[in-house]
Amino acid sequence: MLSITEACSLNEDQSSFKTLKPWWDVLMDYLVVLMLMVSIFSGTLLIYKDNMLCLPMGDDPPNASAGTKNPAAFSSSDPPTPEPGAAASGSGAARPAPTTSAEPVKGGHSTNLDYQQYIYISRVCYQKALPWYSKYSPYLALMTSLILMVSSNFWFKYPKTSSKIEHFISILRKCFESPWTTKALSETACQNSEEAPRRLKSCPSRVLDRSGDEATSPCSFQGEAPFDMSEASSTTILDRKDGEQAKALFEKIRKFRAHTEDTDLIYKVYVGQTVFKVVKFLLILGYISCFVGSITFKHICKPDIQNLTGYSVFFCTHNLAFIVQKLLITYMVLVCLYGLVGIYTLFWIFSQSLREYSFEKVREESSFSDIPDVKNDFAFLLHMADQYDQLYSKRFAIFLSAVSENKLREMNLNYEWTYEKLRQHVSRDASGRLELQLFMLPGLPRAVFQMIDLEVLKLELIPDVKLPSKISKMSRLTELYLYHCPAKVEHVAFVFLKDHLKVLHIKFTDIDEIPLWVYTLKGLLELHLSGNLSSVNNKVIALESLKELKNLKVLTIKSNLTKIPSTIVDLASHLSKLTIQNDGSKLIILNNLKKMANLRELELHHCELQKIPHAVLNLTSLQTLDLKSNGIQTVEELEGFHHLRRLTCLKLWHNSITFIPPAIGVIQNLEQLFLSHNRIECLPNDLFSLLKLRHLDLSNNLISIIPQGIGQLELLHSFSVSSNKIEALPSQLFKCIKLKALHLGNNKLSCLLAEVGELTYLTSLELKGNSLESLPLEIGLCPLLKKSGLIVEDALFDTLPSDVKERLTEPEFAR
């Protein structure tokens, strides 16, 4: 026997699913349980009590036929009279009349049937005369109840929806119980209290983001929640564990949202199961209503056993007909209620858009203005949760807010990055200044602004950088790096940066990452920009006006420009160095360079220039020209360089120059010439007329002969011809007695002249990669040359006498 408790357990869902069960689903579950109880009770009665009792009839009724029932033919007032001695037994069969009686008893007649014959006839007539719905309707009701139970919870069990639902419920409950949710809502409630206006008035500072001019209160950043985690009361402070759990929740919700907003499978499955339940209700109501009224107590049975019993017609009664009929009527009432609730569910589903969910009310009540609306399965699940308790969606919305997440990250950040930990990351740069570099943090730790001795601050890939007024305490801060860090500053911080910041480095993907307050830093001396400034869809990406940068001396742009930005004209009167490093894009338009008359240093790298730009000839104040890696093949424009009388450094390295024209001699004030990594084969004599030349780099070319005229460069300090094809050195080279560095490596030298000993200032000599068999002994006469400055093969160094080797290895002060 199936107990009621066991039957009810079939309908029990996991307790966690109740969050997604609205009142109609709960009611339908209770109705299904009642239907199960009715069907199980009916089935149990049929198992234990279901029998028929049959008595023979003397004459066949005129309208009766075998296997049919004719209750109208026999009324309760005129039943066929059985033998008085035939009474129903405990098994449902009539007891036979005594055979010893000589006379029939008054009120009846003898049938001459024994007990076993009555049992046999009752069994045959049960199968032959009793309709199927009288025998099996309880079991049919039980089966349909189980189908309705399964269909009610199908979306919880279907593999493609169950995992999403379980994940959603798990996240929803964690969000509901999270201390971070309570903290955020409590701070919001505090903000909306009567004391809020007074607290807002107590915040006089202003915030500057990209506008530089507009000021807003730092207590209410645009698009942010108005609560301040740093001033939270002790009763709502989160410990580190709770903060990490809330941080993990934000990540889970982000992934779950991306996974569920793309499809509406859960919605379709729920709609499908609801439609199925309504259709099933109509079917159940249809067939039960057809036969429930046909279940009767009286039946006529005509079994083909007259040769055995002597009777062909029997009158039978079904002892459970009345109670089965009443139970089926009760079942039908429950089904009707079930169907009405299902119809209401369909009305609720199709009367509103359940695949869109707006947090408008939550945004109004909690002041979280950045909570996004959701759609598809995510929206449908929230609609279902609202039917259980709308507080769930309100608390869940906290974890959809980007501002809330940023505040949490800021709190966790301040827990983790203490002053002591930041001190461990402080180092000294090449200039000996104190430097702190922070990489890929969710925000800027407050402890940074306690480091008042910091001079260089590097921030990289930090999405939410806010520079508060506390930065004004960092009086030694002069250089700031913002690599993919769109920063906001308070007004007090902006005033401080305007006066104290001297060097600013910004790396960006989109030009909007450059804060507009940068263009108003009047005290800035150097600005280094790196990012995309090329044209997109025929729209030029332009910098803002630079005219407010009145003290800017150095401007560096690393981008893929096709023309010189027009905004640099604003700096024409005071800019002294301009560097443009293109990413292989061809710089076509250079007309704006003509207006930079006061420019002293110009660097154009990777700009795909095939020749020296004519615009350079107008820069009469130019001292350094660097055209590295441009693919320049000819330098005939050097003829016009006689106008550049202040030019002292010319860098044409890493190009494709094959010939140096004699016009090189017009640059009489040239002190440094870089021609390395080209294809130069020979050197003109005019090159050695540059008597002021101090540094000459001809390495990585195709030079085979060094002209004798090199001896004229008496002021030459550094000479490099490494990685060429030189076989012999001219003796005049060693008349350049002021040489400090001589690089001759990777050539075809077979010997080194003894005159090398006359280079008394030589500190660096590179000979490695030649065909030398020995070194001259005079090399030991170079007083400043040490073994560390002598770059040569070890085997070749070992050919020197021991006293020479000792002289080269002994410390300089020992000499």
Sequence-ordered SSE layout with sheet pairings:
Blueprint: H1 4-9, H2 23-49, E1 52-56, H3 115-128, H4 132-152, H5 154-157, H6 159-177, H7 179-191, H8 196-201, E2 207-208, H9 240-260, H10 265-291, E3 298-301, H11 306-309, E4 314-318, H12 321-350, E5 356-357, H13 360-366, E6 374-375, H14 376-388, H15 390-397, H16 402-416, H17 419-424, E7 426-428, E8 434-439, E9 456-460, E10 465-467, E11 479-483, E12 487-490, H18 491-500, E13 503-507, E14 526-530, E15 554-559, E16 577-582, E17 601-605, E18 624-626, E19 649-651, E20 672-674, E21 695-697, E22 718-720, E23 741-743, E24 764-766, E25 790-791, H19 794-797, H20 802-809
Parallel strand pairs: 8-9, 9-11, 10-12, 11-13, 13-14, 14-15, 15-16, 16-17, 17-18, 18-19, 19-20, 20-21, 21-22, 22-23, 23-24, 24-25
Antiparallel strand pairs: 1-4, 2-12, 3-4, 5-6, 7-8
Helix pairs in contact: 2-4, 2-12, 4-10, 4-12, 6-9, 6-15, 9-16, 10-12, 14-15
Describe this structure in words.
With 815 residues, the protein is α/β, with parallel strands linked by helices. It has 3 domains: 4-98 and 108-156 and 278-348, no CATH class; 158-273 and 354-412, no CATH class; 632-815, Leucine-rich repeat, LRR (right-handed beta-alpha superhelix), CATH 3.80.10.10. Helices cover 32% and strands 12% of the residues. The protein has 20 helices and 25 strands. The strands form 4 sheets. It has a 17-stranded mixed β-sheet. A hairpin with a 5-residue loop joins strand 7 and strand 8. It starts with a helix and ends in a 6-residue tail after the last helix. 33% of the residues are buried.
